[in-house]
Design goal:
It holds the Pfam family PepSY_TM. It contains twelve helices and eight strands. By secondary structure, the protein is α+β, with helices and mostly antiparallel strands. Strand 3 and strand 4 (about 125-130) form a beta hairpin. The relative contact order is 0.12.
């Protein structure tokens, strides 16, 4: 082993050079992640006239079936699902697909792509607007920058931007782990020094302490974000993580509703109120509803229910109902799932910070903000060390003047 070699120096070099190699990409990814954290809240705050409704005194909301019929007639389309919030002052959200592609283009109000989400006043039946806006377009761009660095690729081909973000995320995992090794002091009795910032020091000391202590506090959150984020970057990683967990990640995307039995048809269509009533019997608590209506004559109705509140968990309970007989086909309570399935189904929430409502999103926002600062404070530490070494060399190169008597 070479003279002067230490494991601490090795981890310090790994931390330094990996940070310098990926710093710019990580800065962009962390910054966009910070901005995106509260995108829903920001969109709603910018257009309160769309996302808030006035609750009349002693008012009763119109039935969801009335709202569906009115919207389908007015917009000439088919409602595929709706969201009913727990808060009375928030509008219902109805997802509608146009019958024919129009001037709006795929995915837009007149398109044949994804359904458009309409915000409907449940007390008057008036349409407040759609979720599409300049703000939603901005956050869509932020998301694309976060995931692909705005690099576009043909369908079925590898997106180089996605690969760059994925590789940088893997590097970030090693940066985090090596950073924790460096954080531990040589003498364990000095461990408290790594938890605080010495504000009385010069700017170099403050910068060093900010990088050291804030990196420690955000370590757990950033590691979870990185490990879950890789599920979007690489299929091989997602498959490997699924194998380790023993349950497929993102399996909800490919899941189809259970089939309904046409033999149970009574000639009457189930009302949304009756669907909610059946779901409430299976999962009896107040919350938000997301109802997916059958796309054809064979599918079932899917009701997803989540709790509402500052600390409310984002995990949904799911109830599937036969569209003809109203029979409850399956009830999936998140609390009843084994731990590995809970983790696999919560990858998106774990990455975005939606685990425990607004509370966890605040923690994630702060962690992302810290992560955005780390490449900056880390580069400044490296630059200051370079200048220090350069000054020492210059001092050593100066000739020693001796006085001749």
């Amino acid at each position: 082993m070479k003279k002067g070699f230490t494991w601490r120096k090795l981890f310090n070099d790994i931390h330094l050079w990996l940070g310098l190699a990926s710093g710019l990409v990580l800065f962009v990814v962390c910054l966009t992640g910070t901005i995106f954290t509260f995108h829903t809240e920001i969109e709603e705050a910018l257009e309160p006239e769309k996302y808030q409704v006035e609750v009349p005194a002693n008012a009763t909301a119109l039935s969801a079936d009335e709202l569906i019929t009115k919207l389908e007639r007015q917009e000439k389309g088919k409602v595929t699902g709706l969201q009913i919030p727990a808060h009375a002052e928030k509008p219902y959200r109805l997802m509608l697909k146009k019958e024919q592609a129009g001037e709006g283009g795929p995915g837009g109000p007149g398109g044949g792509g994804r359904p458009t989400t309409y915000l409907v006043n449940q007390y008057t039946g008036e349409i407040n607007g759609t979720t599409e806006s300049a703000a939603s377009e901005f956050f869509h761009t932020v998301e694309q920058l976060h995931r692909f660095l705005l690099v576009k690729a043909e369908p079925g081909t590898i997106n180089p931007g996605k690969v760059i973000v994925g590789v940088s995320t893997i590097i970030f995992v090693f940066i985090l782990l090596s950073g924790m090794v460096i954080w531990f002091p040589k003498k364990l009795k000095n461990w408290k020094k790594g938890l605080k910032v010495k504000t009385s020091g010069n700017w170099k000391r403050i910068n060093h302490d900010l990088h050291n202590s804030l990196g420690f506090y955000s370590f757990g959150f950033l590691l979870v974000m990185s490990l879950t984020g890789l599920c979007w970057s690489f299929e091989w990683y997602r498959d490997g993580a699924s194998a380790v967990l023993g349950d497929k990640i993102f399996k909800q995307r490919g899941e189809k509703p259970l089939p309904s039995d046409p033999a149970g048809a009574t000639g009457q269509t189930m009302t949304v109120a009756s669907m909610i009533n059946l779901a409430d019997q299976a999962v009896p608590y107040q919350g938000n509803y997301r109802i997916s209506l059958p796309s054809d004559s064979t599918g079932s109705i899917v009701v997803q229910k989540t709790e509402a509140g500052f600390f409310a968990p984002s995990a949904a309970d799911k109830v599937q109902i036969d569209q003809y007989s109203g029979k409850v086909l399956k009830v999936e309570k998140f609390s009843d799932k084994p731990f590995n399935e809970k983790v696999a189904s919560s990858v998106r929430a774990l990455h975005l910070g939606d685990v425990f409502g607004t509370f966890s999103k605040i923690l994630y926002f702060l962690a992302c903000l810290i992560a955005t600062s780390l490449p900056i404070t880390g580069t400044l530490i490296w630059w200051n060390k370079l200048k220090k070494k350069s000054n020492k060399k210059q001092m050593g190169a100066r000739p020693v003047l001796t006085q001749v008597s």
